[in-house]
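Suppose you are handed a protein chain with no further information: no name, no annotation, nothing but its sequence. What can you learn? This example shows the usual starting point.
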Amino acid sequence: MAWYIFALVDVAPGGRMGRGLRGPLRARPTAGAYAMVERRDDVPPAELGSLRAHQAVVSRLAGAVPAILPVRFGTLLEDDALDEALSERDEDLADALALVRHRAQFTWRRARPRAPKAASRPSTADADGGAAYLRRAAKAANATPSAFRLLRDQLDAFVVREKFQPAASGMPDTLYQLIEKTAVERYRAVADGLTLTDPALRVSGPWPPFAFAAELL
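A reasonable first move is to predict its three-dimensional structure. Written in structure tokens, the prediction is:
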């Protein structure tokens, strides 16, 4: 059977590691890290229950190790494929683990207000007007909402790294922030105050660093 992979970690968790989705968890040594795995001969169905179970395993592991790189749901690899994927990537792996070590993720979401009725597009015959329209559309799509820019002013002292994801596929605008675990309580106190000033803002966490995990597998 192949290995179903939950995460890459910098040290093997101490004590009993519990179960994965179906079988016992194991810490399989890899190049410069450990892959947290269970034996499995198929990919679990991409259903809400399986997704939540996978996330619960990763969250449990995150509390047991200094650094964790969550791996995409459904990653199933044979021994040779796992070793090959990480071969000669020691430096990348070390850098990725260093970024998330002793750190946690908070996730901010805010639904965009309903957009006003779109103005008619310029004529395609007008090349300059068409180019200007596309530039404006791209800028609007990638701009960080003002509400997120304001909360940055209050939380900047805590933030090690952040990532903004524009609304897409039914998901609202999302801002991910990576902070030191030692600052979680202070961060949360400020964050809760910010949600009171803007009821449309929602914050969740602390989470494992899902948004900051380099895709090494």
